[in-house]
Every structure is written in structure tokens, then in C-alpha cells.
Amino acid sequence: MATSVKTGELLEWFQDPANRCYFNSDLLTVKPSPISSGVGVFAKKTQAVIPTEDDVEENNLLLRVHKSMVLSPQTSTISNLLYDHGLSGMYGLVLAFIYEKEMGDKSPWWVYLKTINYNDDKGNYLLPLFLHSEKEKSILKGTEVDFMGGLDSDDLLEHFQTSCQFAEDVYDEVGIAVPNALKEENLNEFAAITLAVASRAFEIDNYIALGLVPGADLFNHDASGEENVHFVTLGEVCPYCGKEDGCGHEDYGPPESEEEEEEEEEEEKEEVSSERVEGDSEDDGSDAEVIEQLDEITMDYVEQIENELKEEKERKDAEDQEQSETSDDEDEEFDHSEFFMNPDECCDIVLERKIVKNKEVFNTYGELPNAVLLVKYGFAVEDNIYESLCVGPQIVNFRKENPHLEERFDWWSCMGWILLREEEKNNSKDEEEGDDSDEEEEEEEEEDEEEEEEESWLFQCRVDHPGKASTQLRAVAKLLTMSTVEFEAMVADESCDGEMIMRELANKKPTKEGKVLLKRWIQERYATVGDGKTRSGELKRQLRKTDPHSTRFCFITAVLNEKKLLENALHNIK
């Protein structure tokens, strides 16, 4: 959630043309949000979405930031140092933030940086989960946060050590003082900054990758799927220079190394110098001709030359004066819509759903379960519709206890789950309206496929909101409880494909044995959450007595959601 402060100055900052940003202050304002300890964006008036083809004046545009004003490793003041040390992504972005903040008002992002708060009301650092007390972390024992490694400190400790080493190297190389947050005794400050930066970072394009977009982080997250706005930017740009097209890198390859570029520059200088020498030699002849003609010059000719020079000077002075006046007028009559003619060079927040006067305007950070929200953003949402719990560890234990089922496990991990996954994808495509999916959607699907190839089938065995066993989980339960004759007949069938697996394993009415196995796994998963005993009703009562802005409130919310989900799943298995 947005915990930004000092936003009034930021809204003024948006009005300065030099900052290459636009905030729709006619439609939006910023004030404290009732759903978080920070601020949010609110509508000044009600407005519906204008169809794209009719939105010639870009009335759906709420925020626009030129990519040159996105704080990133590529745009920061220390970009050359980050490049030399090979630091990009989140490592580079956190360092860019720290060093820009050290610059104070000399940084072009200073006003924006002051809005990013990483302290609570009492001045304490807002820390990632693993730096909380053992008592607080014990609440999350056995939850999805614990399962995905959200309580593990190894990644951030490595990040901290790398960043501290960078600061020391930079001090030795160019004499830039080591920032306070990058001193070995200040892990907590670094961790708080990292959490603040990570929770605000947006994926920009395949050149910048991650960046901080002034103003975009003011919009809070809606977990119901009814967000009002979307973050939009052109992601497919040249990965070497960031240009949309025309750079030539796609045709001729990436830029050459700096040493090669310097060698080319030296060669060009030598060529230019050589040309000048040749040019001087050629000019000698023409100069001689002019000298020969000087004998014929009269006083009238000299006077004519002087008049021409005087007229030329007067004309140039008049042009300079006119240009200066025009420039002043343009500054006074600056129009943001004229300045941002190319949206492909900008990051936008655009209206996606109707906004209502005095109501908060929400963005979405994605279809994220509470485990991800807690780890990355530091909050959880009650009744999160994207909640999903893995029962993979319970299946692993079952496999160890039943070696006689190893043949079925092997077949499933090598073939069965892949065929079923492909069938699920095909069914999902058929359900979509129309067949004219654009190129971006196809590229996203290809990326998803690459990620899924690296996943274990166990991660697909889940209980989803509001308490439904996933397709893969139902299929595995059926596979492991079907008779030997049924299993051998299925795998021996040459026509066995995803459709058959979907029909015979996932969608077939579960047997009594299958239900018993599902219940067992879900009950075992339930027993790992928190103390394993407290039910959702008791957690709900605890939540009412807890400060809604406290860390404990978020932790209890996450556990409550998981308990309710598993209780619903057990209830649904009849």
C-alpha cells in the first residue's frame, strides 16, 4: 500500500515542464487513505471510461511520466558506476535510490524521493518479515509465506553484502562517500529501504526492467479484481538503448564495447584532421586567386561589403530577439498534451473502470495471494480471491509412505501432468471471447510456458479460493486411488492424451477412496498452519481486537485466510 508522505510538493513538481510528467489534477487528488496507514488517490468528480477510439484528447489519461524521469539503474546519476560493476535489476534500483537520496535537492528526483517513507509513525523502520521478532514470525509458521521462503533472510543478506561492497569500491574509485544505509552496522535501514523500493517498483520495459515511477505508487491495490486504473507502458523496446525503433541494434547487433567505441572515435578524429590538412592545401590555390583579384577592388566595393555586413548583423539580432520572445511565450503557455506527443516513450496510468467522486481510485499489483502481498508489499487482504495454498509437501510425504505407488508417481511427473496442463490451457483459450488475441498476450503466454516448465507438478496441486481443489490435485488423488487394472489400461492406451486424463482423472466423480485421500492431505496441511489448532472463528475474534495498521493484524489476516480456505475445502468434500 502507498505509505508516501509530503505529496503536496510532489503534485506541484508535476506541474514543472522540466520534470516531464503529467498528473490529472482536474480529476484526481491525494489524501490519507482509510485502508492503509498512508495516502491514496481520490476522484474529484465522477467519470466513466471513454472508448479508446473516441478518446482523442486522452481524457482517460490520469498520469504520464516520461521514461527519462523513471528512476532506474539506467537513468540514475550513478548509472555508469552501476554498469561498470554489473549491477542491475533490484540490486541496481535500490542503490540508485540510496545514492540519489544522498544527493538531496541536487537529485532531479528529490521531491519524489521525499514522498517515499520507510518508517512508521513512531520512527521505527518498516522491516521485511524475516527481521520481525521470533514471536511475531511464529504466527506465520506453516503458512504459504513460510512455504515459499518468505521468512528466510539469506537473499537480503546477500543483497546487503553486495551493496556494501559496491559502496566501498565506489569510495575507493571516485571518492563518493559511503551512504549511511550501506554501512555494515545498518542492515535494518537497508532492509527497510529495500522493502520500500521493491513495493513501489514497476516493470517498465526490456531495457530499463525495474524502475520507480513518480506518482504511480500513490495508487493503492484492489484485491477484488475491480481496480479503476491500469499501468500501461511499451515493454518491447531495444534492450541495448531503450529506443522503440530506428536504433539499428536489431539489424546490426548490440553496441560495441566502450574500448572499441573510443578507438572508433580516435579514428574519426584522425580522419577529420587529415581532411582538414587536405582541405587547407586545396584552399591555398583559391586564396591566391582572391589575392590576384584584390588589385581590382575599389572603395565602392569596400563600402558595399560593409553595408552588407551591417544589414546581416541587424537581421540576426532581430531573429534572436524574436526567438527569445517566442520561447518565453511557450514557457508561459506550456501544454502538457503537446509535450507528450509520443506515449510510447512514457509510462501511463489510464482509466480502466468508472471512478466516483470522493471515492478512492485503485490500481492492481496483479492477481496475487496474501503470501506474495505480505513478502513484497507488507500487507494482507481478508478474503483474498487470489488465495491459493500448495499441498505439495503433504503429497511428498505420502509418496515416501507408499513406495508401491512409485510407478504411478513416475508416470505422472514425466507425462501425465504435462498432458493435463496442456488440456487446461486449450480449454482456457476456448473459453476466451474471440480468437483475435494480440501479440502481447501471445508473448505473455510463451513466458508463462517457460516459467511453468521449470516448476514441479507438485506446485500445481493446490487448494484455491474459496476452497476448491485444483484440477491437478483432483487428478493426482484419483490417479493414486484407482485400481491397478484401471491405471495399466489408461497408460497402455495409445490414444491417452490430455483430454482423456481430464475426463478420467480430474473431472470424473471422485470415489470414496479419492475423497479420503484428499481430506487427509488437506487436514495435514491445516495442521501445519500456525499452531495447527486455532480455527478461523477464533482468529476472527483476535483480529477485531488488533490494531488494523499493525504488523500483527496483517499476519493474523494471512493465517485466517488460509484456515478459512482449508476449512471450506474440507466442507466441500462430501
Task: Describe this structure as you would to a colleague.
This is SET domain-containing protein. InterPro entries: SET_dom_sf, SETD3_SETD6_MTase. One of its GO terms (molecular function) is protein-lysine N-methyltransferase activity. The protein has 574 residues and is of the alpha+beta class. It has 2 domains: 3-245 and 341-360, set domain protein methyltransferase, domain 1 (Alpha-Beta Complex); 380-430 and 456-572, set domain protein methyltransferase, domain 2. The chain is 51% helix and 8% strand. It has 22 helices and 13 strands. Strand 12 and strand 13 form a beta hairpin. It starts with 6 loop residues before the first helix and ends with a helix. 31% of the residues are buried.
Q: Which SSEs are present, and which pair or pack?
A:
Layout: H1 7-14, E1 21-23, E2 28-32, E3 39-43, E4 61-66, H2 79-84, H3 89-102, H4 110-113, H5 134-137, H6 144-147, H7 154-174, H8 187-200, E5 202-203, E6 210-211, E7 220-221, E8 229-233, H9 249-252, H10 258-293, H11 299-332, H12 336-339, E9 346-351, E10 360-363, H13 370-377, E11 388-390, H14 392-401, H15 406-431, H16 439-454, E12 462-464, E13 468-469, H17 471-481, H18 484-492, H19 498-506, H20 512-528, H21 536-544, H22 551-572
Parallel strand pairs: 7-10
Antiparallel strand pairs: 1-4, 2-3, 3-10, 4-9, 5-6, 8-9, 11-12, 12-13
Helix pairs in contact: 3-8, 15-17, 15-19, 17-19, 17-20, 20-22, 21-22
